[in-house]
Write a structure and sequence with these properties.
Elements (H helix, E strand, L loop, with lengths): L2 H7 L1 H5 L39 E17 L5 E14 L4 E10 L6 E8 L5 E6 L4 E6 L17 E8 L4 E10 L5 E9 L5 E10 L4 E16 L4 H5 L19
Antiparallel strand pairs: 1-2, 1-11, 2-3, 3-4, 4-5, 5-6, 7-8, 8-9, 9-10, 10-11
Length: about 260
């Protein structure tokens, strides 16, 4: 499998970042659907919080199971992936960047290394394949890290609290049900600590975005949250070879 087919098949995974849904539509109708008999859970004061730091780094590990039903007619069948990413969020300058390692769990253990950069001064997202030194451009609305959404959204429903160990770590969990009339739909849950440090996120559903149709199951955990960003130029500098790309090609086509 070529690196670009592999990347294209899982581009939507990274878009589910810190509890933000992967869709650019109005989310006012998200949450519990009409008529769904879910139990009421009292939400404690302060549970609906905002990320506390203007700049931070956080690691993320994900297990991904995907059944693709087509990527421009080139891909089909089930795939399992382990994904590890080193992510930085800069709310001062409204920037996001991530170094992502993906390992295909099919016996081949094919590995791919990707650098993603979102910058407010550009109307696209850089998706850089570090192994092949090639670049793609993704429209922000189709690759939505949604750096502007810093707080637990109003449309997310509170589902309860939990703790790990002997109550050494506690967290509040929220969920949202993304309607089927959106290009990405399903059940999305995420949890944050009482001071709003991200802990985990899970997604079960399907997507018809980015030129493909697939059913997804994603389970992710955030670790090693660090305030501040050391060596920001390492994360936010676009390699020179990307600047010589042809401007006219769609983002999913390598140049």
């Amino acid at each position: 499998m070529s690196a670009y087919k592999f990347l294209g098949a899982f581009v939507c995974i990274a878009a589910l970042a810190l509890g933000i849904s992967a869709d650019g539509h109005d989310r006012g109708d998200m949450g519990r659907p009409m008529g769904m008999p879910l139990p009421e859970v009292e939400e404690p004061e302060g549970a609906r919080c905002c990320l506390p730091d203007d700049q931070f780094r956080v690691l993320k590990g994900s297990m991904v199971s995907s059944t693709r039903t087509g990527f421009f007619g080139k891909l089909s069948g089930p795939t399992k992936v382990f994904e590890y990413s080193d992510n930085v969020y800069d709310y001062t300058n409204n920037k996001f960047a991530s170094y992502i390692t993906r390992v295909l769990l099919d016996g081949s253990f094919y590995e791919e290394h990707v650098h993603v950069i979102e910058d407010p001064d550009e109307d696209f997202v850089w998706v850089i394949n570090l192994d092949e030194m090639k670049c793609m451009k993704g429209k922000k609305e189709e690759y939505p890290f949604r750096i502007g959404e810093r707080c637990v959204p109003d449309y997310a429903m509170y589902s309860g609290a939990f703790y790990l160990g002997k109550e050494e770590f506690t967290a509040n969990e929220f969920y949202q049900i993304i309607p089927e009339d959106m290009s990405t739909s399903g059940l999305f849950t995420f949890s944050v600590s009482p001071d709003c440090i991200p802990h985990s996120e899970n997604f079960v559903g399907k997507t018809d975005s980015w030129g493909m149709s697939q059913i997804l199951t994603v389970s992710s955990t955030f670790t090693n949250y660090t305030v501040g960003i050391d060596m920001p130029e390492r994360y936010f500098t676009v390699p020179d070879y990307c600047r010589y790309m042809e401007e006219s090609k769609p983002w999913w086509m390598p140049v």
